[in-house]
Design a protein that fits this description.
This protein has 194 residues and is an alpha/beta fold. The N terminus is likely disordered.
């Protein structure tokens, strides 16, 4: 997530834009690199995902404010696991889940790579929206491809507009790609077949 402000509302908060928690505003802690996905990017992404979301198990790998995973839960995802390295940001996310009565959400405080080094569990939807310029998205996709994705899983990638999509593992295909403002974002699919 970068420090640029995105979306509407005063600095320091993010708004859930659809579903059961629509319109709820949650605080955004001041943390280096924190950049919630812009409202219009989230609107487009969740329009793409609308028919698939109910019942999905989601992983928000660089959770930050949790805007993507919270939006997924608000719109019918079964569960969301939020991984956040910054302890204060993770605590704020836990507080947001409590405020929303979001019992289907679980926060893991820790490094994303360390999390992916653990025992894999398959997710239906993974959000990869790290702080810009801090990680190799292609490398993360390769790590995810080793047991972290259910057959037909979707992976969301967000990066600076000037960057191209990273090389994707075999069996992955780009379903949608778009730019908005300073952001390039894409939804890809893993077939789960060799």
């Amino acid at each position: 997530m970068s420090k640029t402000r995105a979306g509407h509302g005063p600095p320091g908060e993010v708004r859930i834009i659809g579903g059961a928690w629509r319109g709820r505003r949650l605080p955004v802690p001041a943390a280096p690199g924190l950049r919630p996905s812009p409202d219009r990017v989230r609107e487009t992404l969740f329009n793409w995902l609308a028919p698939l979301l109910p019942g999905m198990h989601c992983l928000d790998l660089f959770a930050g404010t949790g805007a993507l995973g919270l939006e997924a839960l608000s719109r019918g995802a079964a569960t969301a696991c939020f991984v956040e390295a910054d302890a204060a940001t993770a605590r704020q996310l836990e507080a947001s889940l409590q405020r929303l009565d979001g019992s289907a959400g679980r926060v893991v405080t820790g490094d994303a790579r360390r999390f992916l080094a653990g025992a894999p569990q398959p997710f239906d939807l993974v959000f990869l929206d790290p702080p810009f310029g801090t990680v190799d998205l292609g490398d993360l996709c390769t790590l995810l491809d080793h047991g972290w994705l259910a057959a037909g899983a979707r992976v969301y990638l967000e990066m600076p507009r000037r960057e191209e999509l990273p090389p994707l593992p075999p069996r992955w295909s780009v379903l949608r790609e778009k730019t908005a403002g300073q952001v390039r974002f894409a939804l890809v699919c893993c077939t789960g077949e060799d």
